[in-house]
Amino acid sequence: MTYVDTSDISAQMFITVLLLLLIIAPLISLGVLRLFQSRKKSGLLLIAGGIAVYALFQIIMYFT
């Protein structure tokens, strides 16, 4: 049995992955689901929301 060394993971990387898994990925996947359900407006809004959250996070990370 081997253990994974997580001491090299920075706090920024942890927060990025956490944000990706909890906010951005569900918004985009729900948007794709809505597109398959022929709900184009809500699907595109969810995908755009996921992209907007990602862009906002990139802007925040650039200035910190």
Keyphrases for this structure?
single chain; 64 residues; mainly alpha; 78% helix; flat; membrane
What does this structure look like?
By secondary structure, the chain is mainly α. It has one domain. Helices cover 78% and strands 0% of the residues. The protein contains two helices and no strands. The chain has helices spanning 11-36, 40-63. Helix 1 packs antiparallel against helix 2. The longest helix has 26 residues, at 11-36. The protein is flat, with a radius of gyration of 16 Å. The model has no long low-confidence stretch (mean pLDDT 87).
Summary, kept brief:
With 64 residues, the chain is mostly helical.
The portion of residues assigned to helices is over 70%
Number of domains: 1
Poorly predicted sequence stretches spanning 5 or more consecutive residues: none
End-to-end Cα distance, whole Å, is 39 Å
Count the beta strands: 0
Task: Report the mean per-residue pLDDT as an integer.
Answer: 87
The H/E string reads: HH
Radius of gyration: 16 Å
Q: Could you state the oligomeric state of the chains shown?
A: single chain
Q: How many helices does DSSP assign?
A: 2
Overall structural class, as computed from helix and strand content, comes to: mainly alpha
Strand content: under 5%
What is the global morphology?
flat
Q: What profile does the largest beta sheet have?
A: none
